[in-house]
Design a protein that fits this description.
CATH topology of the largest domain: Hypothetical protein af1432
Bound molecules: fe (ii) ion
Largest sheet: 5 strands, antiparallel
Low-confidence stretches: 1-5, 72-94
Order of helices and strands: EHEHHHHHHHHHHHHHHHHEEEEEH
Helix content: 40-55%
Structural class: alpha+beta
Shape: globular
Oligomer: single chain
CATH superfamily of the largest domain: Hypothetical protein af1432
Number of strands: 7
Mean pLDDT: 85
Length: about 500
């Protein structure tokens, strides 16, 4: 059993009532660190996909153990017996888990004893820290390392080839659409369903990020516009959060950057562990839920022109927030729903708040929302080529978004975002597929001639090489006129 002074790690199916959570689980307010588990809460945890192990507190003294026991069933002896039974039964299995996790954490664990040494490696200016800040710094450093470990785990999950991945995404859009109805009808079970969907979504898209970004553009389910849109926003949120966490970890480990306590806190706030990525993905899936309530059949060619429509658009963020507020959920997730059209410079709506008032999830969600709305057909505005949209976000709208988030997105999607169509100097038309390490341009897969005629063989071209350079950015309407089947070539 992995044990230190504060927690033990056990399998979810071995949880017993009376255990105290040592970490937040999922988007639920009822599953925060410090919660004493009841039978029904244990069932909830066991039903969440992707959570196999949880950290629970180890009891350092009898008083804590008694208090926990009293709260659960008032029977101290019975409770103590349960705890010892549980520990005995789980010992063997937990030992093997413990070894694995111990190995994983060995190179990462920071303590108050070694924090100075770690600080020297990372150039953290501890002379400017008071004692409380030093203790806080230990927690921050460990939480950042945990987040990075969890991201490595997500990215190391099995790769899925494009066709099965696309089928999973199409099914997910349908499941999300069904869940929307449950949420609108105030069913708490819909929150749990959606959380399961988000958790498996992260395990599928995380290790297949390039393919996910690519395939999101061919999810054409006009009758499920809102679920489709929400899934696209969610893909951008997850890929940006993962890339941002990597950027922040590199910043933390870079000895040429001196860090004070303030900078450490900023780095921590821009670092996302698995649970936080689930919360962010969840917020992305429900951010426009009010539209489902008032326009159940909304499609991308809906025209919202009447005064009532305009009023609905203006209030949709706060109405979506109120709709989600009735559920037992993490407040920060709901706050991000409320703020998904806010900008860091205070120029957004509904409240015009600045970054200082943002939930941890707001800055990424509002960026992802803006990018998807600029690039995908929708009832609100005309669209731009993804590269043109990126340029707009990086110039005219730069003050509205966090610079690190813009950088994270350009790294995860490149300046010709994956799935964008281009005409090359060689006269071929193709779409961007995978990132090229160290370049802000991706590989282009040539699939058609400039006339729209399909090529016999599709070839990957490096756009930084002469002859393959990008000549023109193409939008869907241009491509459709050349060859109405063009999107079928993406899957192969
Ligand atoms: Fe919105
Ligand atoms: Fe939206």
């Amino acid at each position: 059993m992995l044990q230190n002074s504060t927690f033990i790690v056990i399998e979810v199916n071995k949880l017993k009532e009376g255990s105290i959570l040592a970490e937040d689980i999922g988007v639920y307010d009822s599953l925060k660190a410090g919660t004493i588990l009841t039978t029904s809460l244990i069932k909830t945890i066991q039903s969440i996909n992707g959570i196999d192990l949880v950290k629970i507190r180890s009891f350092e003294n009898d008083f804590e153990q008694e208090e926990a026991a009293k709260k659960v069933n008032g029977d101290k002896k019975h409770y103590k017996q349960k705890i010892s039974d549980m520990e005995e039964k789980n010992l063997d299995h937990a030992d093997s888990i413990s070894n694995k996790i111990d190995k994983m954490l060995a190179r990462r664990k920071v303590t108050i004893e070694n924090v100075k040494e770690v600080g020297e490696d990372k150039n953290i200016n501890f002379d400017s820290f008071d004692n409380n800040e030093k203790g806080e710094a230990v927690k921050i450093l460990n939480s950042i390392e945990t987040a990075m470990t969890q991201i490595e785990e997500i990215e190391s999950k099995p790769k899925i080839s494009k066709e099965p991945l696309l089928n999973k995404m199409i099914k997910k859009v349908k499941d999300v659409d069904d869940t929307f109805l449950g949420l609108i009808n105030a069913r708490q079970s819909a929150v749990k369903n959606l959380e399961n969907i988000v958790s498996s979504f992260i395990d599928e898209t995380g290790p297949n990020m390039d393919s996910s970004i690519l395939l999101k553009d061919i999810l054409m389910q006009p009758e499920k516009y809102l679920a489709n849109h929400s899934m696209n926003v969610s893909i951008i949120c997850v890929s940006t959060a993962i890339e941002l966490t990597k950027i922040m970890t590199n910043k933390l480990n870079d000895p040429s950057i001196q860090k004070d306590f303030h900078l450490l806190k900023i780095i921590k706030n821009k670092t996302f562990n698995r649970q936080e990525i689930i919360k962010l993905g969840f917020a992305a899936f429900v951010h426009d839920i009010y539209f489902k309530k008032i326009y159940p059949d909304m499609s991308s060619d809906y025209k919202l022109t009447s005064l009532t429509d305009q009023s609905n658009v203006e209030k949709h963020a706060s109405e979506s927030y109120h709709l989600m507020k009735q559920f037992e959920m993490d407040y920060h997730v709901n706050k991000a729903v409320l703020q998904h059209h806010e900008s860091i410079d205070g120029s957004g709506f509904p409240d015009g708040v600045t970054e200082r008032m943002f939930s941890k999830y707001t800055a990424i969600l509002s960026f992802a929302e803006r990018y998807i709305t600029l690039t995908h057909p929708n009832p609100f505005n005309s669209t731009l080529h993804p590269t043109t949209a990126m340029k707009k976000l990086l110039t005219v709208e730069r003050n509205k978004f966090d610079t690190d988030i813009l950088l994270a997105f350009t790294r995860s999607a490149t300046m010709v975002p994956i799935g964008s169509w281009v005409l090359m100097e060689n006269g071929y038309i193709g779409y961007s597929t995978n990132r090229i390490e160290g370049s802000n341009l991706p590989i282009i897969r040539a699939v058609m001639k400039s006339t729209g005629e399909k090529l016999g063989t599709f070839e990957n071209k490096n756009p930084t090489e002469p002859g393959n350079r990008i000549d023109k950015l193409l939008q869907h309407k241009d491509l459709f006129l050349l060859n109405k089947d063009y999107q079928k070539y993406v899957c192969y």
